[in-house]
Amino acid sequence: MNCPNCDEILIAVEKNNIEVEYCIKCKGIFLDADEWYLIKNELKLPFLVDDLMNINPCKDNCNEKPKVCPKCNQVMEKVKMGNLVLDRCPNRHGVWFEAGELSEYLNKNAKEKNETVSFLGEILYR
Ligand SMILES: [Zn+2]
Ligand SMILES: [Zn+2]
To answer: Residue 27: inside a domain, yes or no?
Structure first.
């Protein structure tokens, strides 16, 4: 799979059954839907996240350049989660986090710094 942002080949990083696709160049992360639910359940992230795969795409304030899903190459939809604007595959393959977006979210919302947070942190702050 290639990076939706810079077209570099994404590398798979795995720990405790959580696997993320990571771009070493722009440091973005693609989380597929299953991964997202695993992380969400493990970290007991707030309600907002339940809807990440279901909320309507946003129509305003989404002037970021369009990106395509690394799995199916369809243009992803912009969805808002808190103050973040994320890219979600229209076929629900997953969500793309730009560098810094996921760490910002986790810093605000993950109350305990457990193994998964450190694992993601290691990737994010590499
Ligand atoms: Zn990239
Ligand atoms: Zn897709």
So the answer is: yes
Give the residue, 23 or 54, on which the prediction is more confident.
Answer: 23
Closest CA to 8 of 71, 70, 81: 70
CA of 101 to the centre of ligand 2 (A): 20
Ligand 2: distance of its center to the CA of 125 in Å? 26
Q: State how many domains the chain has.
A: 1
98's tokens? 């730009």
Surrounding residues of ion ligand 2, Cβ less than 5 A: 69, 71-72, 89, 91, 93
Distance CA 63, CA 45 (A): 27
pTM: 0.83
Least confidently predicted of 23-37, 39-53, 81-95, 97-111 = 39-53
Q: How far is the CA of 30 from the centre of ligand 2 (A)?
A: 11
Q: Which domain holds residue 62?
A: 11-124
Does some domain include residue 2? no
